[in-house]
Every structure is written in C-alpha cells, then in structure tokens.
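Pilot study result, target chain (575 residues):
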Amino acid sequence: MEMAISFHSSSLKAPSINPNPNPNPKFKFPKQLLGLSLSPLSSFNSKTTCLKYRSRNSTKPVKCSVSQTTQPSIEKSQLKRRSDIRNIAIVAHVDHGKTTLVDAMLRQSKVFRDNQFVQERVMDSNDLERERGITILSKNTSITYKDTKINIIDTPGHSDFGGEVERILNMVEGVLLVVDSVEGPMPQTRFVLKKALEFGLAVVVVVNKIDRPSARPDFVINSTFELFIELNATDEQCDFQAIYASGIKGKAGLSPDKLAEDLGPLFESIIRCIPGPRIDKDGALQMLATNIEYDGHKGRIAIGRLHAGVLQKGMEVRVCTSEDSCRYARISELFVYEKFSRTPAESVEAGDICAVCGIEDIQIGETIADKTSGKPLPAIKVEEPTVKMAFCINTSPFVGREGKYVTSRNLRDRLYRELERNLAMRVEDGETADTFIVSGRGTLHITILIENMRREGYEFMVGPPKVINKKVDDKLLEPYEIAAVEVPEEHLGPVVELLGKRRGQMIDMEGMGSEGTTLMKYKIPTRGLLGLRNAILTASRGTAILNTIFDSYGPWAGDIITRDQGSLVIIHHIV
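Predicted structure:
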C-alpha cells in the first residue's frame, strides 16, 4: 500500500516572502511524529491512505533537523559553534538541477560582475563534464549572505561517482537535497540521503524545477518523507525543511504556488536550519585532506575542513595516516575559498574550508595535525567497487599510430596515479606483466577514466566489463542494483520483457503525472545491466531513461542470455 503523507504546521518566514502567507498551505512539516490521523486524499486512488498532521500550536516556529548521532571525540564543553560560517554540500540524482541551482546562487550573491559573461553550469569546468552534461568531480566555491560565509560543494549526481559524494560529506554540517518536482526521489537520491543521515547531517529538501507544467510537489514531498522513514531517520531528521525552487529562473519559496522573486527563502533556510561547524578553536590542529588538486607551479594542493586549532602559512605540521605512521612537513601557501576563486590567506581558523600547499606527498584521507600533540582523524571509507575491466598495452599491427604513451610502464604509472584522487577505484596487476585489472563503481566510472586517458595521449586496449563476485560460506554471491526505468506507456511491453530476460524483478511501478510516462523499479543483477542501456533505447525508440544504484550482494541469479539474434559464422573451404 502506498502511503501519502501531508503535514500542516507553521511556515518559515524570510524577509523576501509575502508577509501574508496562505493560511492553509498544502504541505508543511511535523514537529514530532505524533498525532497522525487517517483521511482520504483525492489526488490518489482509492487504495491510497493519507496521513494528515494537524499541529495544535500553529504559531510555534518550525524546528529544523539537526541530528546528534555523530559527535567528535572531543569533550562537548570545549566545542563551540561558529555562527559566521555554513558548510553545505548540494546532493541529488543526476539531472535534477544541482549545478543550475548553484549558478543562480552565485549570480544572486554578486559573485560575478553585472557585465561579466558567465557560461551556463559554470561549476562544470571540466571539458568532459560540459560535453556529457553531467558533474563528474566535486568542486568548492563560496558565497556571502548577510555577513555569513556559505561554503558550497557541488557533487556528482551519477551513482558511479558516489565515491566523490562519500568523502565530501566529511567536510560539511548539512546538505541541500535537490529533488525533481516530477520524478521525485530516484536511486541516487536514496544513496546520497542515506550517507547524509549516517553522518548525522542536517537536511534541507529543495523541490527543484517547480515551474514544470507536470510538477507534482505534493507527491514529491510525500515520497521524500517515506524515503526518510525507510532509511531509519531520527525524528529530528524527519522534521526537515522544504523549499520549492526553480533553479533556471532563480526563484524559491516556502509554497509551490508562491515563489519569491529571488532565492532569499533558500538562503534564509540555509542560515537557520544548517548549524555552523562545531570546533575546538584552542585545541590541537586537525585537518582531514578530503580532496586533492594539482597545480603546475604549486604542486599538490590538499583541500579539507579545519576541525580544530588554527592553521598558519609557514607553519610546521605533522602529516599522519595513523598514530604509528607520521611524517613532518611545512605549509608553504594557504588559501581559502572566496566567491569563485581561491584567495591567499595568512591563517585559517577551525570550521573553515581551505587549500594547503607544500606537502608534496599528501594523500586523500591523511590528517594534517599539530607538530607536537596532533592526533589523526578517522580515515575516509568508501564502498567497494562492483565492476572490473582489464587494461593492457596495444599489441595490434596499428600500435603507436594514435597515442604517444604506449608502453606498460606508462600505463602502470597513469593508472596508479589515478588512485591518488579516485578513492572508489582499485588497480591491481593482471596475469601478465603488461595487463592491469581496474575495478570501479560501474561501467561509466571506468569509461570516464578511459576517455581521459585517451585525451592525454595514452594508447591501450581494454577487455569487456565483468562483475566482481564474492564467496560467503561456499555460496557464490553477485552484486545487485536497483534500476529505475522511465518509459512512455506505448513502449512499456518491450522494455518489461527485456528486463525480465536479464533476471530483473519488479519491485514498484507507477505513473508519472500527465506526461504519459511510467516509472518502473527493478532489482536486477549487475551482470544484467551490462549492455542493457542501448538495448532499452532500441526497444523504446530512444525515449526510455535508465538509472541504477548499487543495492547489495545476493545469490547467483543463474545464466543470463544477452544475445537473442544468434551469430553468423562463415567457413571458407579451399579446394
């Protein structure tokens, strides 16, 4: 049975909002999960149940979600909140409008001059990102709103780049969960929300693209709340604040039919609902290297949030992997993020995000600590890869005609250099000296590496993708994924038949508004997804959209037949 949930409570007030809001708003959020009553909801079918929340005190201010599930090991009496900084990550499913929303936030906070030309999706600065229209690498920027500095991290939306999201969440205290006003929560939405809740972060839900003709904000809010419940969120986390926005128009509001002329309500919600960083200003220096960049003049640049103490330019520090593995280094340059660029700084206080130069061999996950009494922070953990491919040197007759790096030494150095920044990837030696096994989160994860290497001038051969199986108690287990397929109703039959042949099991099916599109969710072996995207596009005449996310390891599903046309074999007999 579906559960549609609507709430009535007090609204968040911001200077840019109509002072006389709708006295009967459609959806607000509960202070607690008590006092729920059943009532019919006309917008759903007769089998649907609606839970309606009626607040006894409508004048009580909304209480934002701040979980206390994860606390630093430092005594609470020593910790203080910085009220002048907010560190947030913008997370969402692919193509739900994260980067476009960041563009609007940058413009309205006067990061750019009025006469300055700014390209669309300015955060997608990588050539491959702009060509594919997706975010691949996480990036930092900052804005200033009412004397408060807001550090913003734009993250990838595709599930294959989930490792970028996992390590970035170590730097922030809250997330903006962007959800499409028509599609609602999708597979990657579930993944990023699960990680945010595990870190105990505050969550502000942004229902984006609210100006779409088929927008259904009521359904999206209900589905998002159900997702919080499924992920075992606390009562405080379920009491999230919702903002309705149109990133491309630069408008936001507390009601889907009453948007302000700017993103003022969104900025106000960030300041009010996401807490400042909890720091130990007088404690021993601690900074976790969460990201690595490279500059031709400055060398390796470590990016992270300062958890305790004060970091100064020219300071001698200790770099720790664990308590038994430490080395000493000196900070040559120090930068903070101001607007859309890195700005040199003499010192950085705890709670801010900064970039550090001078440590040549710094790695992601290492701690920059005080020289005498510093201790390492917990290492960054990411989920294991599920797909592997073999890379080897080109042994064809056409070797050396396209690339300039053709030897196994060049290939080895490049692959192991990728591990310095890409935590979710694994590289190991193959059966021969010139073969390497590269493991990643999915085929797109490895495909992006292949494309980057080709553009850099590497020439090599790759084998077909294979899934990474496990054996537990002498039982063969294989990875399963949740596949969400959006397909027009007229092509529903061929797509369902195709997924059935790939050992997929349907777990949900629903219509999507007035667009005549059906959303199906399947649990399917990763083996069945290899080559499935092109087959679905052919069956649906290019109209279907397939999204996947890793679910879990399960029993071997049996043989999967991927070729149904047969093969043509020609044998030439010489007489």
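One observation from the pilot: The CA atoms of residues 286 and 369 lie 5 Å apart. A full batch analysis is planned for the follow-on phase.
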